Amino acid sequence: MTEEPVDRGYGIDFGLRDPFGNHIRVAQMAQG
């Protein structure tokens, strides 16, 4: 994991990098 989970108001997201060097962002949208 390259970035810890962060609450950004619209939901929580974090970043990571796969073994090939690609950056990936994962987000979970907030309810409401």
From TrEMBL:
InterPro entries per UniProt: Glyas_Bleomycin-R_OHBP_Dase (IPR029068)
Top-level division of the source organism's lineage: Bacteria
Organism: Blastococcus mobilis
Official protein name in the record: Glyoxalase/bleomycin resistance protein/dioxygenase superfamily protein
